[in-house]
Amino acid sequence: SQTIHQWPATLVQPVGSPLSLECTVEGTSNPNLYWYRQAAGRGLQLLFYSIGIDQISSEVPQNLSASRPQDRQFILSSKKLLLSDSGFYLCARYDRTGVIWGYTFGSGTRLTVV
Amino acid sequence: GQQVMQIPQYQHVQEGEDFTTYCNSSTTLSNIQWYKQRPGGHPVFLIQLVKSGEVKKQKRLTFQFGEAKKNSSLHITATQTTDVGTYFCAADRGSTLGRLYFGRGTQLTVWP
Questions:
Q1: Which residue among A15, A108, B34, B107 is least enclosed by CB atoms within 10 Å?
Q2: Residue B1 pLDDT > 50
C-alpha cells in the first residue's frame, strides 16, 4: 500500500522558532511527493513538490523550504516561523492504481504558531 | 489567481436531501479528480474522470465531467450524516505529473 507517515500530529511553536516536519512513504519507489498547506477552513495550497532525491520545486515564495535526502523521505523546514505559517500541513504522493491516478495524503500536522 | 472555481462554498442540507457541488476551469483539463475531507481529517481520493462527458457512480455519488472537459460536478442523492465533510475538486491540466489545482472546496453539513 502507498502509506504515508507524518509526524507530529500537532505542534505549537513560538514565532521565530525553527520547524522541521518529516514525511516518510511506503510503497513503490521514486514517488512524486508533495507538501500542501491548508489554512483553517480553506483550500489546499501546494508548497513544494519533488520528483526525485534532491529535486525540489517551489510553488510559493515564502520562508519555508523542503528537502528530499532519501527516496522515501520528504522534509519541510523553516528557520524562523511566522504567525502566518499556522495551518494544516499535508504530505502526499501521486500514484497510479491500474489506470487511475490520484493523491494519497498523510494524516497531516496541525501547526499553531504563537 | 484562482485556477479552479468551486461552488458553493458551504451547503447545509437535511438528511435525505440531495447535494451538488460544481467545479469550473477556464482551461481544458486533462482530467479532474474529487476528494473528500472529513472534519479533522485529511483529504481522501474519491474518483478520477478523464473522458469528455464521462459519468461515474459510486453508490449515492454521481460524478460528471463536462463535454468540453472544463467543468465537473459531484451529486449526492439522499444525503446521510456520514456524508458530512468538505468535497474538493482537483484539476489536472496535463502539464506536470501530479500538479493539480484544487478548488476551495464545498463544506457539506447534514442535519439529522
A1: A15
A2: no
Angle ∠(B20,B42,B44) on CA atoms, nearest 5: 55
Confidence of residue A105 (pLDDT cuts 50, 70, 90): very high
Q: What residues contact residue B35 under an 8 Å CB cut-off, 6+ apart?
A: A103, B43, B44, B45, B46, B87, B88, B89, B90
Any B CB within 8 A of A31 CB: no
User: What is chain A's mean pLDDT, rounded?
Assistant: 93
Of B42, B97, B103, the CB nearest to A94: B97
Question: Which residues on B lie below 8 Å from A43 (Cβ)?
Answer: 88, 102-105
Return the CA Rg of chain A. Answer: 14
For residue B36, how many C-alpha atoms fall within 13 Å in the half-sphere facing its CB?
14
Over residues B46-64, the mean pLDDT reads 97
